[in-house]
């Protein structure tokens, strides 16, 4: 690994991460493929470099040990052994043919027709949530709106009974927190994530056995069809269900918060959308580009490769800058402008290449239905006096703890 200590850019400082975009712009201008000593890894900031890195077979997605080691700091890795065992079977952490086998089956659960079937359910959830706060004239857009939406939507897609949803919330929060960056005691958080993972595995293995004799149209049944064809073991079906549950949960909450925050900071764009609801599709794409829920993803080099003018050695970690690529002036005119009419808008927020987000269609639908309903029912949406609280403890997840609004 290169030994180039750089005091210039601090990727470990939470204030820098909060004001992420000025930091990324400086790195892109001065050292676009940057060795960040605090991360012990490379950071990419240009659009073209991110696309090339995400398609480069020299960079592996098998990075679980890195995540576990990073999250546990100096604690015993055995604490998270079940977390690691289950994750290892998930498509997100596999490469090549093994990834393809799991992905092809996963795709069956996310076809446009399956997503279209989800529309009335998402509309119902959104309207129920807004009914609860409409008369109050204010809400926390995270706790009252963004947070419950994806949990209910995914539970519905899996056909999970409403009575089990609270259980799920705790388990998946514990797992997602560990994946995205713990801030409490690493060993305690590691144990909670491990227990959450075991509970989720147990739950899904039972659900699979329940569905096996009488499959329906839900996601578990669609994945089970793959097992019947001999392409997937029951443990692999369960592991993909857990991945889908976790990957579609925190990301969508964070993205809804980031999107609403962008509108609150740009009231003229909110007015444009409110006055012309047909703009919703480009508005959602722009909100996802402007402030993505997953600003970075990571890869590890398994062979020597090049990114820009830098040589990446085997074993080096690469933080691929999705948010940074979205603001690259070489790819987007006026990249720091939030413009809901922007088109084309080939942003990187769902990544590109083999691991491009499986749930992008669902996320887009949830965001479009949610934001359109807000624009219709709460046209005067504005920030409340109490300031929002940002959440960006790691490079991988970015959202809000709270986002108080009035309407
Ligand atoms: C706006 C919300 C979302 C964002 C910003 C997001 C972002 C991403 C990104 C950047 C990746 C690629 C990670 C990598 O290559 O390392 C990814 C993969 C994935 N996402 Fe999403 N995601 C969102 C919503 C969802 C939803 C709703 C689901 C499912 C219900 C989902 C399921 C997945 C899965 C299963 C993968 C792994 C795909 C693979 O490895 O082939 N995501 N997502």
Helix content: 40-55%
What composes the largest sheet?
A: 5 strands, mixed
Total E-strand runs: 12
CATH architecture: Orthogonal Bundle
Radius of gyration: 21 Å
- Globally, the shape reads globular
CATH class: Mainly Alpha
Task: Please tell me about this protein's structure.
With 407 residues, the protein is an alpha+beta fold. The protein has helices spanning 14-18, 20-30, 47-54, 64-72, 81-87, 96-107, 112-133, 141-146, 148-158, 165-180, 186-211, 219-228, 234-247, 250-265, 267-275, 280-290, 322-326, 360-377, and strands at residues 33-36, 41-44, 59-60, 138-140, 296-301, 305-307, 310-312, 317-321, 382-383, 389-391, 399-402, 404-406. The chain is globular. Protoporphyrin IX containing FE is lined by residues 91-92, 103, 154, 243-244, 247-248, 251-252, 255, 292-294, 297, 322, 349-351, 355, 357-359, 362-363.
Which descriptors would you attach to this protein?
alpha+beta; Cytochrome p450; 5-stranded mixed β-sheet; 53% helix; binds protoporphyrin IX containing FE
What does the secondary structure layout of this molecule look like, with pairings?
Elements: H1 14-18, H2 20-30, E1 33-36, E2 41-44, H3 47-54, E3 59-60, H4 64-72, H5 81-87, H6 96-107, H7 112-133, E4 138-140, H8 141-146, H9 148-158, H10 165-180, H11 186-211, H12 219-228, H13 234-247, H14 250-265, H15 267-275, H16 280-290, E5 296-301, E6 305-307, E7 310-312, E8 317-321, H17 322-326, H18 360-377, E9 382-383, E10 389-391, E11 399-402, E12 404-406
Parallel strand pairs: 2-8
Antiparallel strand pairs: 1-2, 3-5, 4-12, 5-8, 6-7, 9-12, 10-11
Helix pairs in contact: 5-11, 7-9, 7-18, 10-11, 10-13, 11-13, 12-13, 14-16, 14-18, 16-18
């Amino acid at each position: 690994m290169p030994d180039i200590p750089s005091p210039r850019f601090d990727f470990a400082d939470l204030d820098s991460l909060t004001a992420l975009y000025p930091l990324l712009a400086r790195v892109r201008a001065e050292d676009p493929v940057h060795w960040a000593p605090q991360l012990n890894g490379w950071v990419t900031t240009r659009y073209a470099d991110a696309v090339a890195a995400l398609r480069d077979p020299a960079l592996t997605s098998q990075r679980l040990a890195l995540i576990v080691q990073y999250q546990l700091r100096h604690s015993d890795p055995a604490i998270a052994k079940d977390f690691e065992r289950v994750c290892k079977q998930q498509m997100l952490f596999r490469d090549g043919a093994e990834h393809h086998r799991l992905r092809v089956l996963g795709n069956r659960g996310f076809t446009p027709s399956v997503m279209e079937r989800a529309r009335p359910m998402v509309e119902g959830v959104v309207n129920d949530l807004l009914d609860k706060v409409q008369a109050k004239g204010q809400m926390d857009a995270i706790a009252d709106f963004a947070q419950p939406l994806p949990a209910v939507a995914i539970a519905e897609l899996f056909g999970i009974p409403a009575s089990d949803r609270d259980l799920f919330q705790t388990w998946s929060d514990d797992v997602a927190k560990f994946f995205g960056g713990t801030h409490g005691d690493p060993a305690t958080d590691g144990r909670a994530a491990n227990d959450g993972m075991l509970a989720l595995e147990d739950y899904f293995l039972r659900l699979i056995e329940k569905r096996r004799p009488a499959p329906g149209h839900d996601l578990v049944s669609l994945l089970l069809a793959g097992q019947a064809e001999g392409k997937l073991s029951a443990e692999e079906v369960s592991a993909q269900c857990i991945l889908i549950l976790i990957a579609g949960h925190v990301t969508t909450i964070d993205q809804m918060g980031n999107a609403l925050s962008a509108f609150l900071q740009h009231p003229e764009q909110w007015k444009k959308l409110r006055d012309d609801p047909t703009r919703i599709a480009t508005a959602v794409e722009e909100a996802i580009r402007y402030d993505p829920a997953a600003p970075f993803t990571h890869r590890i080099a398994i062979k020597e490769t090049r990114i820009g003018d830098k040589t990446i050695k085997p074993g080096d970690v690469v933080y691929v800058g999705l948010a940074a690529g979205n603001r690259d002036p070489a790819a987007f005119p006026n990249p720091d402008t939030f413009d809901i009419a922007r088109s084309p808008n080939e942003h990187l927020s769902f990544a590109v290449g083999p691991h491009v987000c499986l749930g992008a269609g669902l996320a887009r639908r949830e965001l479009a239905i949610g934001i359109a309903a807000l624009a219709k029912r709460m046209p005067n949406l504005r920030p409340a006096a109490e300031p929002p609280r940002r959440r960006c403890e790691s490079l991988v997840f970015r959202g809000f703890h709270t986002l108080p609004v009035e309407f």
